[in-house]
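LOG
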Amino acid sequence: MNILLDPDARPVVAHRGGCARGPENTLEAMQLGVAEGADAIEFDVHLCADGKVVVIHDATVDRTTDGSGAVDQMSLANLRSLDAACRFTGVQPSPPISRPCRIPTLGEVLESFPRIPLIIEVKTRAASVQTRALIEQHGAEDRCLVDSVHADALAVFRGSRIARGPSRNGVARLIIKSFLHGASRNLEPSALCIPRSYRGFPLPIKRLSALMRSAGKTVHVWTVNDRREAIELWGLGVSGIITDDVPAIRSARAEMSGKKLG
C-alpha cells in the first residue's frame, strides 16, 4: 500500500526534498532527504514555455535561482542554465552538495526515485495534463499523490488511478463536514495535505483527522520542523508530517514508537 494513503502509517515526508539541508526542489536535496530516511518526497511543479513539467515552487525563478523571469515564459534550456542552489542558506551537509544544482523536470524525479512515494503539488492548471501523462508513462500511479489549491487542476486526474487531495474549496467543505458529522464512509479526496493554520486561522486538525480516518483516509500536515509539534500532531490523529528537517522528525517518530494513534 502507498504509505501516503495508509492511516496507520506515520510517514516522514521531505518538504521540497528536505529544504533545511539542501536547495529546495532539486534532485540533490531529494537524494539527501531519502538518504536521511524520508519515507516520501513532496515537491511542486509548473509548466515551462516549451511544455515541459519542471520542479519549482514559485511562478518565477527569482527567489531560488540566479536568474529572473516567469517559469511559463522560459524554455527548459533557459531554466536548466540557472543555478538552483545559489540562494540556499540552510545547513550544509557533509560532504557538501556540489554546485551548480539544476531545476529538474518531473520526468527526472520519477526516474531518479522509482520506488519512493511522491506528493506532487500542481501549481497551475496548465501543468496538470502533462503531469498526469508523465506519472502514467512511468507507471507511478500507485505511489503518487497529487494536490493543488485549484479544482480545475485536480479535475484532470479524475478517472485515473492517481490519488489526489482536495482543492482549497474542497478543504473548506471538509472542515464544515467535520463539524456537522462525526464520521463519513464516502469522502472523495484520497488524502488531505494541509498546514496547521491558514492565513492566521488554526485549522481543526483533530476533527479533520477523525473525519478522514472514519473513511480510511489520511491527513498530512506541513511544514513541521519541531519535534514536539510533530508528536502533538501524531497524537491528534495526523498520519504524515511534511518537514524541511527529516532527521529531526524521524527522531520524533522514534519517540512516538509504540504509542497509539489518536
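LOG (cont.) second protein
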Amino acid sequence: MALDPPPPRAFADFGDGSWVVPPARVLGAPYIAVGASVVLMEHSELWAEPIGGSALPVVHIGDGTRFARFATVWATVGVHIGSNVLTSDYVAIADCWYPPGDVRNNAPGLASAAVIIGDGAYLGCGCFIGPGVTVGAGAYVGEGAVVWDDVPAHSVAQGNPAVACEESA
C-alpha cells in the first residue's frame, strides 16, 4: 500500500488550506470530511469504513484542527471532531473495538458508538478516546489518559480510566 495520502478530490470534503503530510495513511477518504486549515501530521492514520455500507461521511473534522504525529482515528459509525482541536503525538480516537471493516465490530456487546470531540479541546500525548465518548468544548485530556466516559466542557480528565475534574471558577 502506498503511503502517499489521497488527493483532496478523493475526500467527501477537503477544506482550503488543509494538509495531509506524507507519510500519513488515509483509508476510506470518501467517508472523511475535512474542514479548512486542518493539518494531519506525518505517520498519522485516518481510517473510515461505515458499517452497513453508508455513502455518507463518518469522520468530520472541523476547521483549524491539528493532529500531531502518529495520531490515529478509526471510524465505522461517526467521529465528529470540532474546530480548533489540538492533539499531541500518539493520540488514538476510535468509535469501534476493532479496525474498521472487521466483522467483529458488529458483535453483541461490542457495538460501535459515535465519538464527539468539542471545539477547542486538547488531547494529550498517548491518550485514547473510546467508543461513545463525548469530550466537551475546551476540555483538556491529559497525557496517557484512557477515556471511557464523557468529559464535560472546560474540564480536565486524566488517568486510566480517566476521571474528569471540572474547572473551578
